[in-house]
Prior knowledge:
Structural class: alpha+beta
Number of helices: 11
Helix content: 40-55%
Amino acid sequence: MKKYISFFLYLYGMxxxxxxxxxxxxxxxxxxxxxxxxxxxxxxxxxxxxISADVSQEVIKAQAVLVRTNCEAAREQDMLPKxxxxxxxxxxxxxxxxxxxxxxxxxxxxxxxxGMDSTSEVLTYEQKPCWAPYHLVSxxxxxxxxEVLRDDAYRYLVSVDSTQDRQSPSxxxxxxxxxxxxxxxxxxxxxxAGYVMEVQVGEERxxxxxxxxxxxxxxxxxxxxxxxxxxxxxxxxxxxxLGLSQYGAQMMAKEGKSYIEILNYYFxxxxxxxxx
Length: 276
């Protein structure tokens, strides 16, 4: 029994310290330097939680710029986004939806590290790094930040055409619920990209995004239909629809577009600047 306990403790220790050991081995002693911002040491690990290693390197570079931008934007507010670090070990080397083999972890880490090392830019608006969101697949058009968040501070997130997202296998998905749900749910308003802004659920009014989270829908760009005695919520896209569409970016990369061109397309109001 003691042997089994010792084995599991040893295995747990290896899993816990593996990311840090790899970071040290691959990045060298500089990783321990006090002059290096704490979050910068883990940029490749952050990147690994945000995008598949199987996409084009140009898309990984574009996402790398978003990682650096969002960390810099958080630093400006004297805070770090908790979601970046709360589950790094859980997702280390494994993009959601993939089941990597142990020997793939190092290979993928090197891909993410290459993406981070080959970029040094951030996205800025009015000379400052600002939150740069992303999602998997849009409804065919990305969303307007000011309209969605009802805050003029997000006016730099403008809606752009992303028609190529309609080619994605994840573009449409149907979610079924008991027909009784239909009597309790009604759509009040949509935004310009077709996403539900407000819904009435019984006596409660809530945002489309809140309903999406509660009902675990792929997106809030949905319609309500009755199919064979069930309520079907027919969804378009995957994710919140703001900022960069990762699938759309991949289609642009296949057309020969660089990561700079991809970022300029999805964030036309923002400037790309070298981080000093």
